[in-house]
Every structure is written in C-alpha cells, then in structure tokens.
Write a structure and sequence with these properties.
about 425 residues; alpha+beta; Nuclear Transport Factor 2, Chain: A; about 50% helix; transmembrane helix; membrane
Length: about 425
C-alpha cells in the first residue's frame, strides 16, 4: 500500500541568502570598480560647496561687476539676441546678486530643424556671456567647461569631472551606474561591519561585539590603521554616504530613480517636460519672455495663496523656456523652499496659451518629493550655512580616503594570497 509523502515535502524551502563570504567579495569588487569614480567625485566635491567663491577668484573679470541701479535681465537679454542673430537664450536669472555679473548661456539653432547646434558654420567657440546687469556691457566670454580656454573654465571643468569625468553623455551614464552600485554597496558595507554570529555559549552582547567596528586603532600597524579607517570611517559617515549615493542616482540616472520614487508617491517635475514633448521645437511662442514672466508671477501668486504661502521678495527667481515641450517654467521663492538660494518653487505653463501645467513645491505637500529635495539640498550644500559647507568639503576628502584605503586593503590581501601560493609545495 502506497503511503503519501510528508506534507513538508511539498512546501517550498525558504530562500537562502548568500553567506558573509559572498558579500565580502561583492563589496571588494564593487569598491575596486568605484575607486576611480569616488576618488574623483570626492576630490572635486570637496571644492564644489565653494564654487561661487572659487569662480569669482579664478575669473574675477567675468563674475564680478560694479553697478548701481536696478538690474534689468529681460532688457539685457533682448539686447544680446539683437547683437547675435541666430542665437537663443532659454534660461534667464531674474535676480542678480549685488556686485555680480549677469551670466547668459547662449546656443545656436539650426534654421531647418530648430534644434540646437553644437558645432558648424556660424557657431562660435563660446556659449557663456557675462554682462553688467544694469548697462548690459559685455565683460567676457567662454565655452563652459572647456579647460583649454584657461583658468576661467577651471571650476566648470572640475564640475564636469565631478559628475561625468568630463566625458559628456556617456560619462554621465557611467557615473549614474556607478552611483547605483555605490547605493547598493552602502548596505553591503554596513552589513559587513556587523559582528559575525558567534557560538551561543561564547556570545557577548551584540553592541559589545560591534563596538570594535566603530574604533580606529591609531597606534597600530599601518595595515590595521588603514583597515580601521576604511571600516570605521564608512560606518560613522554611513547615513550621509547613502544620501550622496542615492542623490547621485537622481542626477545621473533618472530612468532608475524616477520609477522607484514614484512607487513611494513622488511626482517628478521633469515628467511634465517629457509628457509635453512636441513634434518640433516651439522656438517662437506667442508669449515672449516679458509676457511669460508676468504670467509666471500671476500663477505664482495664485498657487502660493492656495497653499497659504506668500511669494517672497528675498531669494532667487528665474524663467526657463523649454522649446521641445512648448512650456515655460517660472521659479520663485516661498516658505516651502529648502535651499538657502530660494527659487525652488516652480510653475510650468504653456508657452502659447499660458495655461498652467504643473506646480512643484519643494517641501510640505508631497512627502516623497520633500525627501528627494532634501537629499538634493544636502548633496549641493545649499542648507545649514557655512558649517555644513565645511563638513561637505571634509566629507568629499573622506570619500576619497575610503576609496584609497579600500584599494590598499585589496592589494594587501592580494599580496598575501600570492605569497601563500608561492609557499605551497608543488605536487
């Protein structure tokens, strides 16, 4: 007589996660893969909190300006376009800091397609123009990020290195993938600081066994010191390392970041631009820049009032024309702004009809958006003033240190394995 199989035979076995050894190898190879990216990003990132001051120091003739009166960016833009037919200026700052110039970024359009041309006949070797914001007098030109033009492009070049190794779109994508690996590796590295499971008979309290991971043995051998700096440094800085890793994904790899954040309720402001993409760019909308600013101010007042907020005079404001989407975006400052610069509250509206398309509040309306915007502000050091800027500079150097110490650990262990292989007798 046949007997039935035990019930447990038909139950699926629980999924077994890889052991600690697997994660050690994964962390090792992730670190080696990321070493160059994080080393460069850390070094350049230590300078970027001071980019405005360093720009003024390395190219004072461009960024500093002596003027009295009221800046009129709209008039200055119109004069520039009159002097440079065929050019377009789609982004316009509406506020100018005292003692600073007005920077306009120009691009040249293909008369047949209406799309931007980067090279070719009629395209000059510059795209940044610096002007007195009151008189409109030209102070200088540069091609943004082209270090071949000298010191005036030092900080833009370092900025390009920071997010793309100065390799353009391919570098941005590769850096985005690196940031995604970094994000995952943050959790792997944290797990590896936890103490291995000990026999129950000899098991000390968890915190007591974990405590060595937080310490640095300063008076020890060079290898132990290097190891402690890597492990304890990563552990003490872990929350901010994760902040910088995931925010880097949002900058460089939105195709991954957007759907993940949407799953938790975020509404990415960039989607309205993609959803409104036109068959051909609308380079000559019915609303000119002056009318667009007026419409933006009107919508800003209306939407701020609905939220019980006021449009603040202090803080930045700007207007951005997006020809490929047929939209204007108007940035203004409210109490919802996180960045100390302001200008993070935005309305987007049709460039022909002025119909409102979207409103983006930096904080207080959508929790997931507030979270993302805080990560961005922390990454760019636009919060908490001077002390946090100093901390971000130090953090950049620490990220570089973690990359170097990780490579040193790998080299030491690789050397040890090679030594053991040589000492083993051959059969």
């Amino acid at each position: 007589m046949a007997t039935s199989a035990p019930r447990s035979f038909f139950l699926p076995r629980p999924l077994a996660l890889p052991g600690r050894g697997f994660w050690v190898i994964a962390h090792r190879w992730a670190g080696l893969t990321l070493a160059l990216f994080l080393g460069v990003a850390g070094l350049t990132g230590s300078l970027l909190p001071w980019i405005e001051e360093l720009e003024a120091a390395t190219a004072p003739q461009l960024h500093n300006s002596v003027w009295t009166g009221t800046p009129d960016p709209l008039r200055v833009r119109e004069e520039v376009l009159a002097r440079h037919p065929g050019a377009a200026v789609d982004f316009l700052p509406l506020t100018v800091e005292p003692g600073k110039s007005l920077r306009l970024h120009l691009h040249w359009l293909d008369p047949k397609t209406g799309l931007e041309r980067e090279r070719g006949p009629g395209v000059p070797d510059w795209n940044d123009l610096f002007l007195n914001p009151v008189s409109g007098e030209e102070q200088g030109r540069r091609e943004w990020g082209n270090i071949g033009q000298g010191l005036k492009n030092l900080m833009p070049f370092l900025y390009r290195l920071h997010y793309s190794l100065a390799l353009g779109a391919i570098g941005t994508l590769v850096f985005g993938v690196a940031a995604l690996i970094w994000t995952v590796d943050c959790f792997v590295g944290f797990y590896l600081t936890l103490p291995p499971r000990a026999p129950r008979s000899a098991r000390a309290p968890f915190l007591e066994r974990w405590r060595p991971s937080w310490r640095v043995r300063w008076k020890s051998t060079p290898y132990k010191l290097n190891f402690d700096l890597h492990r304890a440094g990563g552990l003490w800085l872990w929350p901010l390392l994760l902040v910088f890793a995931w925010s880097s994904v949002s900058f460089n790899l939105p195709q991954v970041h957007v759907p993940i954040m949407q799953a938790v309720g975020a509404q990415d402001a960039r989607l309205v631009l993609l959803e409104s993409t036109l068959p051909a760019p609308r380079n000559a909308p019915r609303l000119g820049f002056r009318e667009a600013v007026e419409r933006g101010q009107e919508l800003a007042e209306q939407e701020a009032t609905k939220q019980g907020l006021a449009v603040l005079d202090e803080g930045e404001s700007w207007i951005w024309h997006v020809p490929t989407s047929g939209l204007y975006a108007y940035g203004f400052t409210t109490g919802a702004d996180i960045s100390h610069h302001g200008g993070g509250t935005r309305v987007a509206f049709d460039s022909n009809t002025g119909v409102l398309k979207s409103v983006d509040w930096p904080s207080g309306v959508n929790g997931a958006n507030t979270f993302t915007n805080w990560l961005t502000a922390l990454h760019t050091a636009h919060v908490f003033g001077l002390p946090y800027r100093l901390f971000v500079s130090a953090l950049g150097l620490m990220v570089t240190m973690l990359s170097i110490t990780g490579v040193v650990i790998w080299l030491k262990k690789r050397s040890a394995r090679a030594g053991r292989a040589i000492r083993q007798p051959k059969t």
